[in-house]
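Quarterly update from the structural biology core.
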Amino acid sequence: MEDGQEFLLEEEKTNANKENKRKNEMSDANENEKGEKDMSVMKGKKVNDVEKKRVRDERLEVKRDVSKKTDSIVLKQTVNRKKERKIRLKELQQLQNSKIMLNVGGCKMETSQITLSKDPESLFAKTIESSEHCCSTNNVIFIDRDPTHMRFILNYLCYNGSMPEAIIPRDRGNLTDILHEAEYYNLKGLSSILWKRLNLLLEWGEV
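Predicted structure, tokenized:
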């Protein structure tokens, strides 16, 4: 009996050792698996950190590009404004140096050589070049003509050959009178504008 008991005890001990070994192996496997998972998580986190850094760097680069472009636009606008101011100042100086008294039928209006020369084919521009059509003395130009619509004509020249719609007359009488003056002064652009308005009045049945 003692031998049998010893055998059983030895077998139980062996089985216990095997079980402990198995548990240890399972524990090691679990630890390894956990370690691999932790490594995987760490790698994933590292990849995410790298990706986040890349995105941040790209956004910073975009912001820098936008800032550079904005600075460039602002600089160009500043330079353009300075150029425009210089041009305007030069024009004002020229205007001061080229004042002309326009005497039309006894009605005196002060203007400038620049304004009268806006349309190079006009009678005004030709008059600046020579005194063939009228007398010019001491920057005074006399034209023997009805002055009624002269201010409208000067406005046309001041607007660089165009006229706001609100300023153009809507009645046939004034349009026809101004048209005669425009043709006399050889202002072809103004004549064209007036003819268009007259044709519109015809279409609207207001003539």
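The beta strands are 99-104, 107-112, 136-137, 140-143.
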